[in-house]
Amino acid sequence: MIEESREQDRGPGKTSSRATSWLAWSLAALCVVLFLVAVTLYIATLPVRPPSSWGTGGINTPFWAILPFLPFAIVGALVASKRPTNPVGWICLAVGLMWMLNIVAGSYMIYGMRVAAPGSIPYPAAVGSLAGWLGPMAILLFGTYLILLFPDGRLPSSRWRPVAWLCGLVIAANVVVTTLAPGPLSDLRSVRNPFGLEGHPWLANANDAVGLLFPVCLLASASSLVLRYVRSGEEVREQIKWLAFAASVVALGVSGAIVEGTLFASDVTGSVDSLLGKLLQDAITLSFAGVPVAIGFAVLKYRLYDIDVVINRALVYGPLTVSLAAVYWGTIVVLQEAFRALSGQESTLAVVASTLAIAALFGPLKRRIQSFIDRRFYRSKYDARKTLEAFSAKLRDATDLDAFCDDLVGVVRDTIQPDHVSLWLRPEDRAPQRERAD
Known about the structure:
- By secondary structure, this protein is mainly alpha-helical.
- The chain folds into 3 domains: 9-243, no CATH class; 323-377; 382-437, no CATH class.
- It contains 15 helices and 2 strands.
- The protein has helices at residues 2-9, 12-44, 70-82, 87-115, 124-128, 131-149, 161-180, 202-231, 234-263, 271-287, 290-300, 307-343, 349-377, 379-395, 401-415; strands spanning 422-424, 435-437.
- It has a two-stranded antiparallel ribbon with strand order 1-2.
- Helix 3 packs antiparallel against helix 4 (87-115) and helix 4 (87-115) runs antiparallel to helix 6 (131-149).
- The longest helix has 37 residues, at 307-343.
- It is globular and about 95 Å long.
- The termini are far apart.
């Protein structure tokens, strides 16, 4: 009987759960290994860093720039091991795995074609050609199926099945057409696609046509998420808020990079703008790490309702950081110009004065921004705080116990807004019990 009970404990359900968990974490470990391989290839190909005419993939990207995509695999393994029937975790794993393969394939080709002795590395061009569709496929998987199935792993309704089929056809067509299209490879312009059908140049035009369907699929998937938010309950809305917040941070960074590139394209102010552009690009790259982290919080429902606190802090510290950075750079530019006019040379006093100005402005500016955010976006919280502040000021001068009880009940009703309010005072030895109810 004991042996039979143990066999029941090791039933097919638990065995299947262990198998899926093992598979998920094995794929995550493979992503970590591919990341280390990408770092190694980056270091090995430093002497032959390609010029911009060879494209922007592979070695042109610093090795740490792929680090934000490693959380896709880690979070995907965590979600897939705990929610194996939810495809969101497996999609995150696939995105992380494909992105690492994309970087490794491009770097492997550059190493084989530019660093290693000819013929010593097998099939560098063939492996490098994989980077042509691995990256777009990872983006499409995230931007279509993950959005369509988020957060419970099901489509919003059966009406969205044609959209899912369209996304699948676009992904498959992109793989086929990119693999067979003739022409130079994106990571190394001097090498032509070894699988390209040179006698069929129309494949290159077909590749462009398939690319035009990318935004259609992305917009359709985004609209499904908006529709799901409108029709869902409070818990699903909180889950969607996590993903929307992380995506909005990336979108704001990309928008800022576009504005910065437009305004400072001529680089008229020298190294300050160049440094600002590099910092902005690095911030955009690092912001991608927040997307899988937000997905993990949302799907696993860990600290789910803390998203409102996160949004509040972001609305406060985002404008605060931008304002202080603008003051800092503006003060440096103005003071340096003043020092040049007076002494004919720059001075470190401009940096010191800018730092002191930032330290003096931090507290007052934070309080003003917090008050503005509370008034505009958290009106109920703002009104409750103002009511409590007014009651605290009135309490210092209160002498009438009956009036105080009435005021206290009114404050609780206005701030917490319960269905019923009762106030019980502890009776003294000979004093009657008082009650105030609303």
